[in-house]
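hiii so um. not sure if this is the right channel but i have a protein structure encoded as tokens and i wanna go backwards to a sequence. like what aa goes where. can anyone help
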């Protein structure tokens, strides 16, 4: 059988940490300097430090410094050794054997063994929102010796290696967390945390402040370089900009700022403002209609409205490097296909299609009205997008009531109760569609959980295509299945793709080896150092 590049390399990979050093971040020409404190800012509030029980970027950033994964990736998204120094895939594709780094230890000094890997796999499979999508085919983890873990599979699973990052399956201490308590609410997820990665928790105010210190017993010799990371949540972007500008903050990963803010910060010679990178994240911004609600249950209506969305205008106003989206797999992903219907902006066509659908305007010029829920992150950006939709829809006789929410939880409750007309939304597709794309379209994933199939789309043929794509190692077959999938869901407008958001990173120019490619900020920062 033909094996994808990711898996083909996995059969023979055996790299040392020293070789790995140069592949995961911007290359540095000088010898890394140990020591120093990195001051980091974020707007996101994290509820836990355990990425096995919580998806998303808020938890992922700190968790990837506290916990190691079996694997990490290089800039080309190819798997590289981390806690697993090597791995091999059986000829039938039904098992993967991992050999662990010898003498790797948790932060409390206990050895990391294959039993911890087994516990961690089960923890993520059971508790992570994508757990079954990532690990549903893993029937058991055999532990023939402390350094060997064998993942036994019910079907070939080409996405497995992409799922073994600390963002999804952190290696957890079973001797601490396997005590009979519910892992999702375990107190040691936030207090007295015992990790396996480059930095240890020194102090923690959940969701607000986090102090990490160097793990002197980290299994990669000489790493990490930083002595300390101070991670602080800020509710005020104005304060963030001021503190970055005056040097009080060193690093703003995945920055949520306006184009004006970025323009200001670019003028500071002490700062680096970087657009792009984070290729493994795969964000897509879209308009989500509740398909249970009339008239959005009618395909011809969704298609008509798609012609009334001025994506070009949105990109121009946002001026932040976003691009127009035509499908739901990111353009940098190997499974991206542009062989999909394209809904050009054409108000006359949109109006004519609504007429044909029987949705004619009344004496007031209004055909129908609906409420558009607006998420809370990137408020300025969301407002621009929502107002642009409102203006162009008004021109075809569709009235939009933009609803704001006081906090993230309020928006989540509205969407997951299915008591909404439409919402703006954004998901991360991640490096393999199995992890981040399937969840929005599978019939089995229609559930009251955010970033699932909340729109209520169900097509058994799409389910079949996704199943086939997730159980073959043949890269060409996978590409074909995903091409058919994209063509179908874009034609049916299960969701309406709008934008491909661009990642922005701001950091002090004397911070070296900031990770920008691959998982970017959501990978380990063990190679980052301060040139001061």
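sure thing!! here u go:
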């Amino acid at each position: 059988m033909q094996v994808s590049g990711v898996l083909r390399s996995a059969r023979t990979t055996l790299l040392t940490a020293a070789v790995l050093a140069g592949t995961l971040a911007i290359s540095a020409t000088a010898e890394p300097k140990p020591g120093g404190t990195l001051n980091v800012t974020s707007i996101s509030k994290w509820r836990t430090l355990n990425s096995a029980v919580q998806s998303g970027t808020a938890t992922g950033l700190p968790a990837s410094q506290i916990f190691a994964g079996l694997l990490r990736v290089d800039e080309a998204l190819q798997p590289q050794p981390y806690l697993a120094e090597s791995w091999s895939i059986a000829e039938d594709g039904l098992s993967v054997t991992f050999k662990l780094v010898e003498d790797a230890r948790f932060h409390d000094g206990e050895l990391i063994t294959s039993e911890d890997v087994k516990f961690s796999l089960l923890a993520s499979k059971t508790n992570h929102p994508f757990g079954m999508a990532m690990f549903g085919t893993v029937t058991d983890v055999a532990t023939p010796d402390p350094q060997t873990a064998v993942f036994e599979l019910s079907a070939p699973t080409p996405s497995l290696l992409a799922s073994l990052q600390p963002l999804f399956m952190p290696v957890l201490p079973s001797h601490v967390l396997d005590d009979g308590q519910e892992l999702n609410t375990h107190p040691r997820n936030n207090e007295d945390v015992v990790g396996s990665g480059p930095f240890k928790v020194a102090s923690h105010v959940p969701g607000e402040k986090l102090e990490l210190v160097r793990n002197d017993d980290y299994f990669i010799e000489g790493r990490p370089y930083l002595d300390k990371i101070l991670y602080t949540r800020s509710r005020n972007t104005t304060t963030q900009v001021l503190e970055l500008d005056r040097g009080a903050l060193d690093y703003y990963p995945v920055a949520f700022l306006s184009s004006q803010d970025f323009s200001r910060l670019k003028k500071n010679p002490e700062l680096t403002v970087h657009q792009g990178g984070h290729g493994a994240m795969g964000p897509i911004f879209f308009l989500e209609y509740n398909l249970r609600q009339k008239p959005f249950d009618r395909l011809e209506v969704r298609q008509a409205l798609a012609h009334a969305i001025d994506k070009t205008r949105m990109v121009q106003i946002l001026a932040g490097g976003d691009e127009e989206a035509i499908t739901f797999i990111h353009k940098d992903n190997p499974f991206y296909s542009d062989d999909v219907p394209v809904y050009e902006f054409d108000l006359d066509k949109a109006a004519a299609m609504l007429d044909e659908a029987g949705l004619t305007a009344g004496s007031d010029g209004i055909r129908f009205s609906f409420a558009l829920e607006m998420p809370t992150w990137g408020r300025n950006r969301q407002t621009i997008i929502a107002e642009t939709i409102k203006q162009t829809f008004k021109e075809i006789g569709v009235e939009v009531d933009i609803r704001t929410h006081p906090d993230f939880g309020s928006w989540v409750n509205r969407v997951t109760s299915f008591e909404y007309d439409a919402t703006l939304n954004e998901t991360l597709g991640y490096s393999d569609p199995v992890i981040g794309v399937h969840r929005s379209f599978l019939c089995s994933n229609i559930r009251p959980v955010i970033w699932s199939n909340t729109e209520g789309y169900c097509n058994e043929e799409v389910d079949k295509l996704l199943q086939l794509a997730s159980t073959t190692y043949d890269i060409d077959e996978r590409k074909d299945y995903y091409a058919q999938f994209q063509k179908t869901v874009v034609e049916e407008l299960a969701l309406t793709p709008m934008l491909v958001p661009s990642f922005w990173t701001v950091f002090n120019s004397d911070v070296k080896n900031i990770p920008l490619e691959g998982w970017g900020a959501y990978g380990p920062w063990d190679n980052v150092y301060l040139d001061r």
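oh and The chain is about 25% helix and 20% strand.
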